[in-house]
């Protein structure tokens, strides 16, 4: 029913988004379509080789600087990218900027055949992906929720694909997962019912004896223990392969972003994907209201870390690697670029947003985040005194993930998303 309501809203909202356009607010926009860019490129400087073709085989327009120096031709394009969107780590914010980037570039998205996730919590398979649209030779961006299977991903994405994911401090991740999925993860639901009888906190009840609620054979309990490791396809029951798994993940992902260093992570992401600071600008999406946050004392934090020790190892390992990547980038340069990113984000946010942290009941349907019955998710109100072009950009800037997902799916396939068939 949620999918049906969302798709209905998207059919209405898509008209506004399509007619307001996806032009860049910060650059004043461009009326040049992907086909028109190809035509201009073909006429710009005819040469008998492939120097004027991007990674998809499309002809591209050299930069003005490159045209002045035909001996040193350079072009900027966005390579294919897979973003493994882990639960409750800030992934929705990253997904939004990838959606904006892909829509602007006319990218082909790899979308789930049904709804918003790739048959989660099953491990990803290539046949979970909807068909390749007519006229596309390959998928460019995959950024919907999945449980990782590296081999299956590589079998369907181009060989030059960049792989990115994001991790968050395990204690904060688990608290957020528990808060948002209390009613959908069976282990959490059982703990909530037991806590209600004793008039206690559901989280404290669960952590006091987690094994009495968690069933390792229940797929829907995957997020109830080491949720980040679970999303990355790791097996909680096979500790012998842990070091091998870490090595494979390190070799697969060019960047593992760290939520506690979000802006620094975005700068490194921008360097990988050749994005401008304005393209990396963001507002934090899927943020919970203050009353949905659970205060954690030291005992609770220790219990969370003990229960999620694989996530602790995973996070500590990639935090160390992240610091090494930051040092390689240059800390002084990184701090300077973070300041530039924040300035761009602040400027665009002031242009677009009239109110932040807005309760769902005060938001229009199109920009109201999906709610759960255990947490309140806040959103943003877009300013009303905008031009049509500005409104299109600003709506996308704050658009909740399910709304944007459904909009892009409709735009790519000309139909609404499919619901999961009844069993």
TrEMBL record:
Q: Which GO terms describe its biological process?
A: glycolipid biosynthetic process
Q: Its principal location?
A: Golgi
Keyword Glycoprotein among record annotations: yes
Stretch forming the signal peptide: 1-22
Which compartments is it annotated to reside in?
Golgi apparatus membrane
User: What InterPro entries is this protein classified in?
Assistant: Gal-3-0_sulfotransfrase, P-loop_NTPase
- What are the record keywords, sorted? Glycoprotein, Golgi apparatus, Membrane, Signal, Signal-anchor, Transferase, Transmembrane, Transmembrane helix
Domain of life according to the entry: Eukaryota
- Annotated GO CC locations: Golgi membrane
GO molecular function annotation: galactosylceramide sulfotransferase activity
State the family named in the UniProt similarity comment for this chain: Belongs to the galactose-3-O-sulfotransferase family.
This chain's source organism reads: Stegastes partitus (bicolor damselfish)
Question: What is the designated name of this protein?
Answer: Galactose-3-O-sulfotransferase 2
Question: Per its UniProt record, what SUPFAM superfamilies does this chain match?
Answer: P-loop containing nucleoside triphosphate hydrolases
Do you know which Gene3D superfamilies this protein is assigned to?
P-loop containing nucleotide triphosphate hydrolases
Q: Specify the protein's topology with respect to the membrane.
A: Single-pass type II membrane protein
Pfam families, alphabetized: Gal-3-0_sulfotr
